Amino acid sequence: MLTGAGKEKIELPSSLFPIEGFGRVHDDLYVRAMLLDTGVPFLIVCFDTTSLRPYAVAAFRAQAAQAADIPQENVWICVSHTFSAPHLRSEEAQAGEDGEVARKNEILFASMTAAMQSAIAQAKAGLEETRPVIGNAYCAVNVNRDMLTASGWWLGADDLGESDKTVPFVKFLSKSGQTKAVLYSCDVQSSVMDHSKGADGYSKVTGDLVGAASRFIEKQYGDGFVALFLIGAAGDQAPLFKAKHNILNRDGSIEETDIGDEGFVLVNALGKKLGAQVVQAMERVKQPFQPGEATLRQTAVSCPGQKIIPNLRDIHPTKSYVFQPDEERTVTVSYFTLGHVALVGLGPELSSTTAIDIKKDSPYPLTIVATMVNGGDKYMPEHTAYDRITYEAMNSKFARGSAELVARHITETLKSIQKEGTT
Fold this sequence. Notes:
By secondary structure, this protein is α/β, with parallel strands linked by helices. It is built from ten helices and 21 strands.
């Protein structure tokens, strides 16, 4: 198989600031791209940003396909889900009277586009014959963020909550045996510095936990190496430590603390911890597999919908809430299979337990469940979240049972794809 990878910094000029509460850049944001070709070309592009609106996904996907000279349906546009990056704004926000939002949005969009084009050009130019090696690291940088308080379930850290600590990866070896790139995933939001303010009253732009992890991995393997991250099922997962965090007092009440810029010590510590575990696991596994033919597929599944009310944070935590049904929602699921590997990508942010179930029932030795692929659809929590009335359950446009429905659909599709490949 042929593999090429590239990365490029997203230039954020001083004229962009302040923007959305950010005063300056602490560490650079990047776009990373990986192009795989076994006769079926497949391109993954990952932006260091929180999320992407539909118009941005559509534009980036079309431009990426053109740059790589492949069909648009063979492109995944993904995000690292760092919470400490400015958003590309909605069309409504850009229509503001003073034009300032539109001006800054244009600057940001142009910077992200230029970085993507450069990363793809590097990947395309660097295509070479490789052999894939699969493995799992294990790293406890994530924790279930649904915490029981005296007033109901709220956002915090529950060490007893469900949380998948495995970090699946695929590394790519050159014909000479040199490690050229790695694709890895973890069920964690990159949100150590989420809404944390420095002494100047502003937040700082950062790639956060995942940015630090990828930089560490890339430094270990030298210039030209690319560590591309896919966010896993992190809807109910947070970093083990956060700069701005909630803890429980003796009486079950919430105490909020913000340690400000001191939080970057946590970013560095957790990022290096994750990166080091990935590197050590990469070094332990040596045996490549024969990739064979790749399969790209896309399916759709209908799920029961529910309404999201505004200002959820004003009424949460709560022990009483009525979930209101709404029209059905269609979820698009994308698949890329290659030998022993299955990549599953979808928009909704799943709970960690949902991905565990998918992996357990998958016929593929290594299954990576990636969320926020080709757009985001908010949360799709597992069924107990609705009993608990968690933030994710209230802030979901998918009704109870949707996650279980989607998980069954995915595993059935994977079994079908695998069966077709063996006949």
